């Protein structure tokens, strides 16, 4: 009865194990050279935001654009994945639908590119 | 096209033409007058063609408008509507003649003024002619708009306030009436399966409706008409409107517009909801008698000439409501003819008062005194108008008032006796006004000030040199005489020989009585 | 249990039958969406000086073609059908609403496109965003970073704010407003045709997101405009969340997001009423928010006030149509069987909306805020028709939407004409004595205000008449009486403006009336003509609105 779920459970276990293993092994095998940046809170790889009241620091607008694009591509993948899984049964109709989807996504990307959204400066 | 449609369309066309003649005021004025005279001729023809013994509605025409709701643009007149339309047609040239030289607020032209008056005329004619409840409502509301601009655009210093108050009162009343009309429609759908706003059909269907339904429908219509008529306590817009509106517009307001209210009682309230009308008649009668007494006392106490006119009208509308809701043929004929006679008598009074104000430049009664020494003709005119207003035998109003009182007495003795007190009060306030304005030595800031500057004393001989060209305060000129003369003729003519009008009105009143389903408690006295 | 399992395993690879699609039926929506996408491409590739004309042409042409496609389809359409696996219902109300939206969209695009009233258009210029007058200016978009694509015109791309005013006519407006408006319109069309709640939600987002952006693009009074956009966005997000939550609960109740299935479920009685009540409540709150029905109106005055006037017109007219279209469909298709549960709640909401609109409208001193409160009152009147669950109620509400939409677009068109050197003179004091300076504009505006007040011989009156007569026939006499009294009270604040325009002396340094360009003139004329026509000869539109009910 539960046969179909066993691979799933195994998958979960593997993922969990890998995470624990990575975290656990790193301090054991890696070198320890701390600096200010390394001790700071981790926020997507750039300088962390200053506190809102005392700071007054702003994020570059371009950052938000890039982040937004990242999310958009993410979402695109999220939608493509289920299609990929059942591509066979959906047939040509599915291909047409997904092409339409990707093309309309592509339009936005083209617009972004042409209007300079990809240039950092 | 029936004569009736012509009566509606001619002033409308006139209004457009006058409105387009922006360049020359004189041409605009003459055109407006020509159209109003043409209207008068058509009205006379319509009267001539009316057959009192004929069908209930005559000159009928009907065009489908909104078929989904059974709404038709249908028009027709019975005797009551016909005489009212005739009155409008008669008053309009006089009003135009009166306003010929009126000083208007800065930036306004006579062309615009007359154009709006003609639009108002077309709409009021159409209101009286409508035989579809929906169409009646539509016109009832639309006719507010030109009047709103007439008061607000051409009136006195507080004209904005008066115009908005006038509009909102009537608009609210109209909307409540719309609720009733929708209720009537919904009832018709329920009973007959077919919705309609046709007056005759609704009269038939609603006549059999249970009293509870009728009461609600009656109340909605009643509120609208009571505001319009106006009955105390829904009257407060009228004094403000008459005080601020130009005199010509006041004539239309009290002479024509307000009659839509009493006409509505006769045409809509009674036939549509006969049982509720009788059930709630005491309510109306109480308001009517209060109106008579309150209006008379207020008129007596007024210090402002134009507000005086408003309260005189309120008192008279009380009489009309009394006659209508007394439910006897005589009283109702009296009320219907009173609608005409009031327009003539009060219309004349308004015009005369307007001529007085034009001379003195003030609306305060205290600013006048002893005018008849200076302007004897004007004094005479005020006397004629006043005597008609107080219903002196031999004047037109007497016939109506007498019919109302004698017709109401058998059915409603108490109210009738109370209203009779109003007759006495009318004599008091009219003569008191005449005495203050016309009699005695020449006095009052307005008159004397106009002659010699403030604070001076005056000698009647220096104020007016009869026949002289240098009269400071002149007597009536030819144009003014021309405006008043037809009214004098009617006041006396209809006082002595009212039959032509009563003959037209009576069959329609009898039809209304039979629609209500009441018979006269006593046989009408013979010999008329 | 069974099907769920099979799906989870992803083993059963039977070919899926694609659902049949009635392309003719949904052609207008497809056309609109395509045009919006093309609009994006235009933005990306055309040089700046060509964009405006191409975008305007594209938008207007598409609206016309979509209208023709709609007309061609409607001619032969029966009572209606559902397509795209039952997610879209193309029935007679849908066709009417689509027609209304396309026509209103056409008028709105005309207003948006105008560049002569405000030099260069009422929207931020291309180059304006980077040098915006406020810190928030940066939020308005992509051009914050100037790139190689703009190199060709780099010399004019970074002027100072003062220069912007002088050169506005040259640098032109942000032409993205056109694709945004087209996307929004497409969303609206789907919104009122959606036959299941999930489609409806997606459409809600498609129509809302471009609107949030459009609100923030005013060239003048940037802060006000951006504040409006943020407010609208935040509150709109809230409302979407409400809608979504209600959707989820209704799904939990009925096991389906399809309106028909929910209707079937409510007809039975063995399910949890809690889920149903909570679901209906939350869902309807989301819808009422979009329709700016009081007491869910709080955003309306601020947003109407802050947004560029042309966008306000678009929003006020089209969003109202779409939102009420959806409300009608949800109430009549999904929730009719449970009407006893929500009827008196919405009854109260309608009264509240009228009261809020009228009472607060009386105190306004800014004309755009006044019209905003008027729209809240009108939403109350519309709701009166919407909760009369009869054919007459449906067609009356549809007619009202058509009438109100055209009047509103024209009203905002006129508002955009009355200006000082600082921009539009929306404060009422500026309107004093307008009739002396510009009799025609004053007369037109008076007519439109009278229509909003519901004076006979205008479309506003006929709309009210249809809606109220349906309500009376459905037995809601007290509600109608309240509505009529509210109409009378509302007339006061319309009259106040008329008094100001006609009976007051103009102020010495008052605003002037711009000579409208061809586009604005066309939009206002269209609105006025329709307002008059529907008032005098309502039967044509009525017959169209009255042909049939919803299918599901």
Automatic annotation (TrEMBL), chain A:
TM regions (residue ranges): 6-29, 61-84, 90-113
Bilayer topology term: Multi-pass membrane protein
GO CC, alphabetical: NADH dehydrogenase complex; plasma membrane
Recorded catalytic activity of this chain's protein: a quinone + NADH + 5 H(+)(in) = a quinol + NAD(+) + 4 H(+)(out)
Superkingdom of the source species: Bacteria
Subunit structure: NDH-1 is composed of 14 different subunits. Subunits NuoA, H, J, K, L, M, N constitute the membrane sector of the complex.
Record keywords: Cell membrane, Membrane, NAD, Quinone, Translocase, Transmembrane, Transmembrane helix, Transport
Record's subcellular location: Cell membrane; Membrane
Task performed by this protein: NDH-1 shuttles electrons from NADH, via FMN and iron-sulfur (Fe-S) centers, to quinones in the respiratory chain. The immediate electron acceptor for the enzyme in this species is believed to be a menaquinone. Couples the redox reaction to proton translocation (for every two electrons transferred, four hydrogen ions are translocated across the cytoplasmic membrane), and thus conserves the redox energy in a proton gradient.
PANTHER family named among the record's database cross-references: NADH-QUINONE OXIDOREDUCTASE SUBUNIT A, NADH-UBIQUINONE OXIDOREDUCTASE CHAIN 3
Name of the gene encoding the protein in the UniProt record: nuoA
Coiled-coil spans in chain: none
The protein, known as: NADH-quinone oxidoreductase subunit A
Documented EC number(s): 7.1.1.-
Similarity annotation: Belongs to the complex I subunit 3 family.
HAMAP family attached to this UniProt entry: NDH1_NuoA
Automatic annotation (TrEMBL), chain B:
Ranges for domain NADH:quinone oxidoreductase/Mrp antiporter transmembrane: 130-422
Single annotated GO MF: NADH dehydrogenase (ubiquinone) activity
Location in the cell: Endomembrane system; Membrane
Membrane disposition: Multi-pass membrane protein
Pfam hit, one: Proton_antipo_M
Superkingdom of this protein's organism: Bacteria
GO BP term, pick one: electron transport coupled proton transport
UniProt keyword Membrane present: yes
InterPro entries: NADH_Q_OxRdtase_chainM/4, NADH_UbQ_OxRdtase, ND/Mrp_TM
Annotated keywords: Membrane, Transmembrane, Transmembrane helix
GO CC annotations, alphabetized: endomembrane system; membrane
TM annotation in the entry: 6-23, 30-50, 79-100, 112-130, 136-154, 166-188, 213-234, 246-266, 278-296, 308-327, 339-358, 370-394, 414-434
Keyword Transmembrane helix: yes
Family recorded in the similarity comment: Belongs to the complex I subunit 4 family.
Stated name of the protein: NADH-quinone oxidoreductase subunit M
UniProt organism field: Halosaccharopolyspora lacisalsi
TrEMBL record, chain C:
UniProt key word Lipid biosynthesis: no
Domain called NADH:quinone oxidoreductase/Mrp antiporter transmembrane: residue spans: 194-487
GO molecular function annotation: NADH dehydrogenase (quinone) (non-electrogenic) activity; NADH dehydrogenase (ubiquinone) activity; quinone binding
A Pfam family per the record: Proton_antipo_M
EC number(s) on file: 7.1.1.-
Sequence ranges of Low complexity compositional bias: 129-152
Primary enzyme class: translocase
Domain of life: Bacteria
Keywords: Cell membrane, Membrane, NAD, Quinone, Translocase, Transmembrane, Transmembrane helix, Transport
Biological processes, Gene Ontology terms: ATP synthesis coupled electron transport
InterPro entries named in the record: NADH-Q_OxRdtase_suN/2, ND/Mrp_TM
Membrane topology: Multi-pass membrane protein
Biased composition (Polar residues): 154-165
Residues passing through the membrane, by range: 23-46, 58-75, 95-113, 177-194, 200-218, 230-254, 274-299, 311-332, 344-363, 370-390, 396-418, 439-459, 479-503, 515-537
Chain spans, region Disordered: 129-166
Reaction it catalyzes: a quinone + NADH + 5 H(+)(in) = a quinol + NAD(+) + 4 H(+)(out)
Protein's cellular compartments: Cell membrane; Endomembrane system; Membrane
GO CC aspect terms: endomembrane system; plasma membrane
Chain's role: NDH-1 shuttles electrons from NADH, via FMN and iron-sulfur (Fe-S) centers, to quinones in the respiratory chain. The immediate electron acceptor for the enzyme in this species is believed to be a menaquinone. Couples the redox reaction to proton translocation (for every two electrons transferred, four hydrogen ions are translocated across the cytoplasmic membrane), and thus conserves the redox energy in a proton gradient.
Assembly behavior: NDH-1 is composed of 14 different subunits. Subunits NuoA, H, J, K, L, M, N constitute the membrane sector of the complex.
NCBIfam families listed in its UniProt record: NDH_I_N (TIGR01770), PRK05777.1-4 (NF004441)
Alphabetized HAMAP family for the sequence: NDH1_NuoN_1
Homology family: Belongs to the complex I subunit 2 family.
Protein's recorded name: NADH-quinone oxidoreductase subunit N
Organism: Halosaccharopolyspora lacisalsi
């Amino acid at each position: 009865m539960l046969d179909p779920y066993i691979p799933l459970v195994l998958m979960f276990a593997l993922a969990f194990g890998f995470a624990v293993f990575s975290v656990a092994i790193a301090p054991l095998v890696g070198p320890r050279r701390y600096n200010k940046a390394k001790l700071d809170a981790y926020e997507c790889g750039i300088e962390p935001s200053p506190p809102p009241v005392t700071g007054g620091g702003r994020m570059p607008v371009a950052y938000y654009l890039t982040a937004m694009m990242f999310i958009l591509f993410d979402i695109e993948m999220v939608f493509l994945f289920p299609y990929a899984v059942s591509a066979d049964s959906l047939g040509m109709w599915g291909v047409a639908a997904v092409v339409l989807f990707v093309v309309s996504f592509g339009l936005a990307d083209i617009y972004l590119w042409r209007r300079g959204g990809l240039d950092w400066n | 096209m029936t004569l009736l449609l012509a009566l509606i369309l001619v002033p409308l066309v006139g209004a457009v033409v006058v409105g387009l003649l922006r360049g020359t005021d004189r041409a605009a004025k003459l055109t407006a007058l020509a159209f109003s005279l043409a209207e008068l001729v058509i009205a006379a023809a319509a009267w001539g063609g009316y057959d009192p013994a004929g069908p209930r509605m005559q000159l009928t025409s009907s065009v489908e408008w909104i078929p989904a709701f059974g709404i038709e643009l249908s028009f027709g007149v019975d005797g009551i509507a016909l005489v009212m339309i005739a009155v409008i047609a008669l008053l309009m040239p006089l009003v135009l003649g009166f306003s010929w030289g009126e000083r208007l607020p800065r930036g306004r032209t006579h062309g615009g003024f007359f154009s709006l008056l003609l639009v108002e005329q077309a709409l009021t004619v159409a209101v009286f002619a409508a035989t579809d409840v929906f169409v009646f409502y539509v016109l009832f509301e639309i006719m507010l708009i030109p009047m709103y601009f007439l008061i607000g655009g051409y009136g006195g210093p507080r004209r904005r306030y008066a115009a908005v108050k006038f509009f909102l009162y009537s608009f609210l009343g109209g909307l409540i009436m719309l609720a009733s009309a929708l209720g009537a429609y919904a009832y018709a759908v329920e009973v007959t399966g077919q919705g309609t706003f046709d007056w005759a059909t609704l009269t038939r269907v609603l006549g059999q409706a249970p009293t509870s339904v009728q009461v609600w429908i009656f109340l909605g219509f009643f509120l609208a008409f009571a505001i319009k008529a106006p009955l105390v306590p829904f009257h407060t817009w009228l004094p403000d409107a008459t005080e601020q509106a130009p005199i010509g517009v006041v004539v239309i307001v009290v002479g024509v517009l307000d009659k839509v209210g009493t006409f509505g009682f006769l045409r809509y309230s009674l036939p549509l909801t006969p049982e509720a009308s009788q059930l709630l008649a005491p309510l109306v009668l109480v308001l009517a008698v209060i109106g008579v007494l309150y209006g008379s006392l207020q008129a007596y106490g007024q210090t402002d000439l134009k507000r005086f006119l408003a309260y005189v009208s309120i008192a008279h509308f009380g009489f009309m409501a009394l006659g209508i809701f007394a439910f006897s043929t005589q009283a109702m004929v009296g009320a219907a003819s009173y609608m005409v006679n009031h327009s003539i008598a009060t219309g004349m009074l308004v015009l005369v008062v307007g001529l007085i104000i034009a001379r003195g430049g003030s609306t305060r009664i205290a600013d006048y005194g002893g005018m008849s020494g200076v302007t004897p003709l004007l004094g005479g005119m005020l006397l004629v108008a006043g005597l008609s207003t107080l219903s002196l035998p031999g004047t037109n109003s007497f016939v109506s008032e007498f019919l109302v009182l004698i017709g109401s007495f058998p059915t409603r003795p108490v109210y009738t006796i109370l209203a009779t007190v109003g007759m006495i009060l009318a004599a008091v306030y009219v003569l008191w006004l005449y005495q203050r304005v016309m009699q005695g030595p020449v006095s009052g800031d307005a008159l004397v000030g106009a002659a010699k500057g403030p604070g001076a004393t005056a000698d009647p001989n220096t104020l007016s040199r009869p026949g002289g060209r240098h009269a400071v305060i002149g007597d009536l000129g030819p144009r003014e005489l021309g405006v008043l003369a037809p009214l004098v003729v009617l006041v006396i003519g209809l006082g002595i020989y009212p039959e032509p009008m009563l003959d037209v009105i009576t069959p329609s009143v009898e039809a209304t009585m039979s629609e209500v389903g009441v018979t006269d408690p006593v046989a009408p006295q013979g010999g008329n | 249990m069974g099907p769920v399992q099979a799906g989870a395993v992803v083993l059963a690879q039977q070919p899926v039958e694609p659902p049949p699609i009635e392309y003719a039926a949904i052609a207008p929506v497809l056309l609109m969406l395509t045009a919006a996408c093309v609009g994006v491409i235009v933005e990306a590739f055309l040089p700046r000086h060509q964009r405006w004309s191409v975008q305007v042409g594209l938008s207007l042409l598409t609206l016309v073609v979509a209208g023709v496609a709609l007309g061609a389809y409607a001619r032969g359409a029966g009572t209606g059908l559902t397509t795209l696996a039952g997610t879209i219902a193309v029935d007679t109300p849908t066709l009417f609403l689509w027609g209304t939206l396309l026509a209103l969209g056409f008028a709105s695009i005309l207003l948006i496109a105008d560049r002569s009233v405000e030099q260069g258009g009422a929207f931020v210029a291309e180059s304006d965003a980077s040098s915006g007058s406020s810190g928030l200016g940066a939020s308005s978009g992509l051009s914050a970073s100037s790139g190689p694509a703009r190199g060709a015109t780099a010399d004019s791309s970074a002027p100072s704010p003062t220069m912007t005013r002088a050169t506005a006519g040259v640098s032109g407006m942000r032409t993205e407003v056109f694709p945004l408006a087209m996307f929004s319109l497409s969303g609206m069309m789907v919104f009122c045709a959606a036959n299941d709640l999930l489609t409806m939600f997606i459409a809600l987002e498609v129509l809302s997101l471009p609107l949030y952006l459009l609100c923030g693009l005013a060239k003048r009074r940037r802060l006000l405009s951006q504040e409006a956009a943020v407010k609208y966005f935040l509150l709109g997000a809230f409302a979407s969340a409400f809608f979504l939550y209600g959707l989820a609960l209704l799904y939990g109740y009925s096991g389906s997001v399809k309106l028909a299935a929910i209707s079937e479920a409510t007809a039975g009685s063995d399910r949890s009423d809690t889920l149903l009540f909570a679901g209906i409540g939350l869902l309807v709150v989301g819808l009422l928010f979009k329709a700016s029905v009081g007491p869910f109106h709080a955003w309306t005055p601020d947003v109407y006030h802050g947004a560029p006037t042309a966008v306000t017109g678009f929003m006020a007219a089209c969003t109202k149509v779409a939102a009420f279209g959806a409300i009608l469909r949800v109430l009549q298709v999904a929730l009719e069987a449970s009407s006893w549960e929500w009827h008196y709640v919405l009854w109260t909401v309608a009264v509240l909306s009228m009261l809020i609109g009228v009472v607060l409208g009386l105190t306004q001193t800014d004309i755009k805020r006044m019209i905003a409160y008027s729209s809240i009152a009108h939403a109350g009147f519309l709701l009166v028709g919407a909760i009369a669950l009869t054919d007459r109620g449906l067609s009356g509400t549809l007619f009202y939407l058509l009438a109100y939409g055209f009047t509103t677009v024209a009203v905002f068109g006129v508002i955009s004409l009355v200006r000082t050197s600082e921009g539009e003179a929306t404060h009422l004091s500026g309107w004093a004595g307008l009739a002396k300076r510009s009799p025609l504009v004053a007369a037109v505006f008076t007519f439109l205000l009278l229509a909003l007040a519901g004076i006979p011989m205008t479309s506003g009156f006929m709309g009210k008449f249809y809606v109220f007569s349906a309500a009376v026939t459905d037995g809601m006499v007290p509600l109608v009486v309240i509505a009529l009294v509210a109409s009378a009270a509302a007339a006061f604040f319309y009259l106040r403006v008329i008094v100001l325009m006609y009976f007051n002396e103009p102020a010495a340094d008052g605003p002037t009336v711009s000579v409208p360009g061809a586009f604005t003139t066309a939009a206002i004329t269209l609105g006025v003509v329709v307002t008059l026509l529907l008032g005098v000869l309502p039967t044509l539109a009525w017959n169209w609105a009255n042909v049939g009910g919803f299918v599901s």
